[in-house]
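sorry to bug you again but im stuck and you know this stuff better than me. what follows is a protein written twice so to speak, once as letters and once as structure tokens for the fold. mainly i need to know what kind of three dimensional shape the backbone takes. anything you notice is useful, everything is just below:
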Amino acid sequence: MSTPRPATQAGKFYSAHAGNLRTEVATYVGSAPVRSVIPAPWGFVAPHAGYSFSGQTAGHAYSQVRERKPQTVFVFAPSHYASFPLASTWDGPAYLTPLGQYPIDTEMVARLRKVLPGLRSEDFAERQEHSLEVQIPFLQVACPRARLVPLLIGDQDWQNVQKLTSGILRVLDETGEAGEHLAFVASSDAYHGHSLDACKASDGHLAEALASMEVSRLYRDIQSGDAMACGYGPIAAVMEISRHLGARRATILHRATSAEAVACRPGDYVVGYLSVMFH
């Protein structure tokens, strides 16, 4: 077994100082309200930008993840740097951040690899990617006793995502897992572009697509350009798994834009963020 996945984004997307990082993340998670819903949420969406931009929005998702008290958390994230079939999962015992090691559920990963032989570690993509790593400090604070199943998706077409989710659901059925001790997180930002008005409109369409709980609508709105999400494949995976486990609703927990973190003039680059739970 290889070494822990190194913290390649510490000092870039989040603080490399352990004390500062823990305080910042604990503040984001602790200041977000907890919503009591029945049934309890299985799936979540959280952004993956620098914490000064999207940390507050991510905190709204992880305050709900913490309430679920999962034993294993699946994190689905998009690959920004490489394309490959199915998905990549780190071939090692843990993810490393300034807060220490966060253990990978190696038993679950092994079961997934038996069902999905194409599931392997794409080393170049794994070491470059930030979309999954930035979720780990939030898990270390919100769910310190849980284990991780990291899944980096290199092909977000629905056929590929559906194959991945079908394999996961097969493993859950074989192991008798009904989802009680699990949580599923999709890592994604929303609109990217040069218009704050367009950002708000696009993110509104994305929120409506998620609220519909229809994967086909999500893909249709992404393909038409009505909505944007760099992690639409991860979102679709979490939505589909949540539906299979019994979720029937999506609640938008928080929406924000990068313009709220820095002064934004007309024509400046803008990114949208939202957090969601499926329940």
Observations:
- The chain is about 40% helix and 20% strand.
- Residues 18-278 form a domain with the Protocatechuate 4,5-dioxygenase; Chain B fold (CATH 3.40.830.10).
